[in-house]
Diaminopimelate epimerase
Amino acid sequence: MKFTKMQGLGNDYIYVDCTRETVENPFDIARKVSDRHFGIGSDGLVLILPSQKADFRMRMFNSDGSESEMCGNAIRCVGKYVYDNGMTDKNIVNIETLAGIKVLTLTAQNGKVELVRVDMGEPILLPKDVPVASDKESFISEPITIDGREFKVTAVSMGNPHAVSYIDDVDNFPLSQTGPKMETNLLFPRKVNAEFVQVIDRKNLKMRVWERGAGETLACGTGACAVLVASVLNNLSERAATIKLLGGDLFIEWSEEDNHVYMTGPAVKVFEGEIII
């Protein structure tokens, strides 16, 4: 199988052009290629496929083999992949995902994409649609207790579910202990991506993320979008802010005009090769 390894802020995936390659069991392949000792090493596997609804279709699988609806860092890399490899010459590309069709605006220099702005669509805030096991009309700053500590959690879906909490010191937060317990909390029937956020000021937020099915990653694009939305709902930030992740920065905007969330960030090719599967 021919592959390309790419990363967005250190959130790395193995990309396969399935207009040329056939991947028959992506759940098992994702686990194999993601292994950082016996495989290539990644946060998961991304397949780029033909689409009857858009320019291309993206399927993404976590390192544990589970399939996710969307990944903001991965979709930026898909945009770079199809443009840099001559699969399209358009600067605005539509990508079909399990979370709907996303519109990418590509910024290229010398024929290579360096920056991608993604229309992530409208945030989903109704708890039953996130989903959260709650009959409330919204789930904003609701208490959840883990290991005796209470977190005020705001639930947002960006096509996949997120639980956003605010803490004073994100660098020293015991994410490896708290993250998996938030992910599997019974309030979240499809599990959840857990973001823990430190507010620097109203235009700068610092976060770490425990991703559903992958553990802590260096960045999460949908998570950064959820953090911005949650911060606006909690009156902690402006509607446009820089989200600082372990792997770098993303600029997120929540438009008042169309209620869409826009994410801007880099996409980088690491290397390409072949693996026997």
